[in-house]
Write a structure and sequence with these properties.
The chain has 87 residues and is mainly α. Helices cover 49% and strands 0% of the residues.
C-alpha cells in the first residue's frame, strides 16, 4: 500500500433526499439585530475588507455543511486547540 493511512477513519453518512433544503445556513451578525449600533468611521476599504471576510466565512460554512469529513476534522482540531498548552 502506497499513500497515507489515516489515523481516524470517518465514514461519510448517506444524505437523505430532503437534506438539500435543510442546509440553507444563514449567517447572522450583531449588525442584523434590532437596535444595533453602526460604525460610521469605517473607510470604504475597511468596509470592503469586512464584506470580503464575511463572504469568505459564509463560503467556508457551506463547505463545512457539505463535507462531513471536513466538519469532523475541524471539530477535532478545535478540540485539540482548546485542550492544548495555553502559552
Amino acid at each position: 500500500n502506497l499513500g497515507v493511512t489515516p489515523d481516524i477513519i470517518v465514514e461519510q453518512p448517506r444524505r437523505r433526499a430532503n437534506d438539500e433544503e435543510e442546509t440553507g445556513f444563514q449567517f447572522r451578525s450583531e449588525a442584523d439585530l434590532r437596535g444595533s449600533l453602526s460604525n460610521d468611521s469605517l473607510s470604504e476599504d475597511e468596509i470592503q475588507q469586512i464584506e470580503e471576510d464575511r463572504a469568505k466565512a459564509e463560503e467556508t460554512a457551506k463547505l463545512r455543511n457539505a463535507d462531513y469529513q471536513l466538519a469532523y476534522a475541524i471539530d477535532i482540531l478545535t478540540g485539540l486547540n482548546a485542550l492544548g498548552p495555553k502559552n
